[in-house]
Amino acid sequence: QVHLLEAGGGSVQAGGSVRLSCAASGDTYSRNYMGWFRQVPGKEREGVAAVSGGGSDTYYADFVKGRFTISRDNAKNTVYLQMNSLKPEDTAMYFCAAGRTYAITSMSPLDFNYWGQGTQVTVSS
Q: Tens of pLDDT along 62-86?
């Protein structure tokens, strides 16, 4: 199993930056791609970004391209989401999740079987 612990959420004004972190543990961590998702009450959980097991391949949703950067430091067993130029519509609960393969194969929440507790990011105008 993979256990995930998120940190870094909070309140920020539009245009500001926040860096989320996700500390992972488990003997399968280095073989799993990792993703960040976000969810607003009343809406379906949506994929934000993902990074392959080795960190060389990434995926970004169109609504965050050019603003967010996902990375991982496997020596620290940690995945990061650097969020710049934040907008009020970025306000959501952000979740870290572990995929089931080394390569990025899916951004459906159903294909991620390990999840962090979620951290709230609130962006004010």
A: 999 999 999 999 889 999 999 999 9
- Cα maximum dimension of the chain: 42
Residue 44 forms beta bridges with which residues?
none
Indicate the residue type of 104. Answer: I
Question: How is residue 23 written in tokens?
Answer: 């500390």
Say if residue 31 is exposed, middle or buried (CB neighbours under 10 Å; 0-12, 13-18, 19+). middle
| Type and span of the H or E element at 81 | strand 78-83
Secondary-structure breakdown of the chain: helix, strand, coil percentages, each rounded to the nearest 5: 5, 45, 45
Strand partners, 36: 49, 96
CB 71 within 8 A of CB 52: no
